[in-house]
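Translate sequence into structure tokens.
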Amino acid sequence: MVRTANIEGILEKAATVVAKTTGLRVEVIEGQRIGRHVRGRRQAAEHKILRIVRGKNRWEFELILKPWLNVAMAGLLAHEFNNRRNGVIVTRFVNKPTAERMREQGICFADTSGNVYLKAEDLLVWVQGQKPADRETRQLVGRPFKPAGMQVIFALICLPGLEQKTYREIARVAGVALGTVDATVRNLKLIGYLLEGKEIGRRIVRREELFDKWVGMYPQQLKPKQFVGRFAARDPEWWRAADLAGTDALWGGEPAVQIETRYLKPEIATLYIQGDPNRLIVQYKLKQDDRGNVELYNRFWQFHTDQEALAVVPTPLTYADLMATGEGRNLEAARDLREKKLGRYFK
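Result follows.
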């Protein structure tokens, strides 16, 4: 969970910057001031209201803190907003694609860089394209979320306690060079996701927030570099009878969540492979097709999890694959997977 001090800092900064950007008076007030319209929440951010004042007019929005947002998460948030009369997401930074998606979904937001979308009766505020102004946010948006660094973070998320191991061991299971581990650890310390001391050793903190940031960056930074190709299978149900033993392949995305939770009927079969894919392609008569129903990616991690007994990738990657599609059916499946399977990675 995000610490209260962090919540207060994000809210106050967003309110100040939005006021400066728009020329409106922006206030953060206690939520009980609008009585029954605000439901009780555990997080401090959800006990507060963003009040916009222009002349004699005022508008009040229930504040919901999301430390990180991305295009995929915008679709999931649309469901959360269906039952809200007036809510606004407050976050660190919203890039242009995410801002556009949020507006299309009718989700109000404000960030600490001055990007904002607010819509209510007689009110429309829309500012996008503002860059991160402060050093911390620029670092959080960029380093250490480059491809090799993301491989390290993925290993740290999937294997709680790995941060206590030697850099050499972390490099081995993440599939990266030793220097990448050193740089990633330093950057994670710099931006507050890793603590280090004589008594505690190294310890990842704010694991869930770090994971959400990784999920948001995965479709742009790491996934495209692992792409092998898209193929077509004659039978859309071919994957059910496929035996991956001896192929060095694991199911990801839609087949993986179907195997783990039985939630979804797959339309696209995602596979992560290690080594030459030709054996798999020949065995199942897959034909290269840019519009095909089979996607192949290289396996980028070098560790093993319990999920391999089911021939599926680590659960955090299944979630990231589903979120990356931005499709409603997959976002619902991702939500179900998160509720049932992901909690153990955040402890």
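Note: The first helix runs from residue 4 to 22.
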